[in-house]
């Protein structure tokens, strides 16, 4: 059975604290500091008799995180249910990280590319006609919908988390493995589409009386498409995970490599 350390009020308060998610945004851990701040009061209640464990869990949650602020209550409430029921730390982290990418895509599309342009178009027209209802409708309507999304996703996250604990505890490792696979698929798609590395080398090959231009990059793509982006992403993962580099070091390294290889015409 699920533990009941946290009440519905605690989960609701955590949902509202999602408004603070971006307060600590930085280019080292993105929303990591804000995320830990969002769940901090609930964690204090879970680990009120174990301050060392509280410190450990807080440090774990300061790691890099970046998702849509309006859908983050779904993640935090599932995570809190798992933590109050002593689910293995790695399983909790796998679930949290696996949900980051998909919810970012859904939330950003909904809030930035659907709701914001829709309300902007309607309300700007009203404002241009001299109606005060334009900006009022924009502020109240858009923020009202986004607040509703926060509350509903938070409630569903709590409900789903409780259901997972009560009905699927024996298969938690399989569930988190499946979530990890989804997360890896999302990251793989981002790598192949957004990491652009190419080899500009080409040479002329004579075939009889004809000359044919052979591009090395096309040969590499024929063997393994997006091989260079995958290898570079693997290097970044190695430095981040194994060597404990931070984001600033990775950015500086990328700039230096890009400057040198571009000017030497090694990569394009």
How would you concisely characterize the structure shown here?
This protein is mainly alpha-helical and 268 residues long. It contains ten helices and two strands, in the order H-H-H-H-H-H-H-E-E-H-H-H. The protein has a two-stranded antiparallel sheet with strand order 1-2.
Fill in the keyword field for this structure.
268 residues; mainly alpha; 2 domains
Explain this structure to me?
With 268 residues, this protein is mainly alpha-helical. 69% of the residues lie in helices and 4% in strands. It folds into two domains: 8-172, no CATH class; 195-263, no CATH class. The longest helix has 40 residues, at 89-128. The chain starts with 7 loop residues before the first helix and ends in a 5-residue tail after the last helix.
SSE blueprint and pairings:
Layout: H1 8-16, H2 32-46, H3 51-60, H4 72-84, H5 89-128, H6 133-168, H7 172-194, E1 202-207, E2 210-215, H8 216-223, H9 227-241, H10 247-263
Antiparallel strand pairs: 1-2
Helix pairs in contact: 1-2, 1-4, 1-6, 2-3, 2-4, 4-5, 4-6, 5-6, 5-7
Q: How far from one another are the termini?
A: 57 Å
Give me the oligomer status: single chain
Number of domains: 2
Which class of secondary structure composition applies to the elements? mainly alpha
Secondary structure tally, helices: 10
């Amino acid at each position: 059975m699920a533990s009941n350390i946290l009440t519905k009020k605690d989960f609701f308060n955590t949902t509202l604290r999602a408004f603070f998610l971006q307060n600590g945004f930085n280019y080292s851990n993105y929303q990591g500091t804000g995320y830990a701040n969002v769940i901090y009061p609930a964690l204090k209640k879970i680990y009120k008799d174990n301050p060392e464990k509280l410190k450990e869990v807080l440090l774990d949650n300061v790691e890099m995180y970046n998702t849509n602020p309006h859908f983050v209550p779904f993640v935090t409430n599932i995570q809190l249910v798992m933590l109050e029921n002593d689910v293995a730390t790695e399983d909790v982290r796998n679930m949290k990280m696996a949900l980051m990418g998909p919810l970012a895509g859904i939330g950003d599309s909904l809030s930035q590319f659907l709701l914001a342009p829709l309300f902007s178009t309607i309300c700007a027209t009203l404002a241009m006609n001299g109606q005060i209802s334009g900006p009022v409708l924009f502020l109240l309507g858009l923020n009202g919908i986004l607040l509703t999304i926060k509350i509903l996703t938070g409630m569903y996250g709590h409900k789903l988390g409780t259901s997972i604990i009560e009905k699927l505890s024996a298969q938690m490792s399989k569930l988190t493995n499946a979530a990890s696979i989804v997360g890896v698929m999302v990251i793989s798609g981002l790598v192949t589409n957004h990491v652009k590395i190419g080899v500009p080398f080409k040479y002329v090959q004579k075939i009889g009386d004809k000359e044919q231009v052979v591009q090395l990059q096309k040969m590499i793509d024929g063997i393994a498409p997006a091989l260079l982006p995958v290898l570079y992403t693997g290097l970044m993962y190695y430095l981040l995970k194994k060597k404990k580099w931070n984001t600033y070091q990775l950015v500086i390294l990328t700039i230096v490599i890009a400057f040198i290889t571009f000017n030497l015409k090694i990569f394009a």
